[in-house]
Amino acid sequence: MEIASGRTNLDTSRSEESIHLITLLEEKVKNGHLVDLVDRNSNDMHAHEQDVIQMMKLAMWCLQIDCKRRPKMSDVVKVLEGTMDAESNIDHNFVATNQVNFGIAGNATPSAPPLASDLSGPR
Predict the structure, then answer these.
(1) Segments forming the whole domain that contains residue 38
(2) What is the pLDDT of residues 64-117, one digit of tens each?
(3) What is the CATH number of the domain that holds 43?
(4) For a 10 Å CB count at each end of the chain, is N or C smaller?
(5) What is the count of structural domains for the chain?
(6) Which InterPro entries does the entry mention (predicted)?
(7) What 3-state DSSP class applies to 10?
């Protein structure tokens, strides 16, 4: 996402609602404005805008909170090679905002902090 958008994941020089790239991604995809994230300062990104959007869709597939819904690395390679399309049925919530979302393995409780494996799973 950093390459496609031409910005870092965390950019404190931006307005509060666009400091975090992944939160901004959530907003743009839900509003149907994914193209707004394409780096306008890169002629190459602009010239290949549809390819960049396809890479963003692949990134979103990989960013899903539920690690079971993320692609295998072999599937990522197939998408990059053009022999497979990225999954289109994606959960567009990429940032866990409450503890319920962290309980991927189902063993997180309010009295104990979640394990690192529960927080993100393999990426």
Answers:
(1) 2-94
(2) 999 999 999 999 999 999 999 999 888 888 877 655 444 445 444 455 555 555
(3) 1.10.510.10
(4) C
(5) 1
(6) G-type_lectin_kinases/EP1-like, Kinase-like_dom_sf
(7) strand
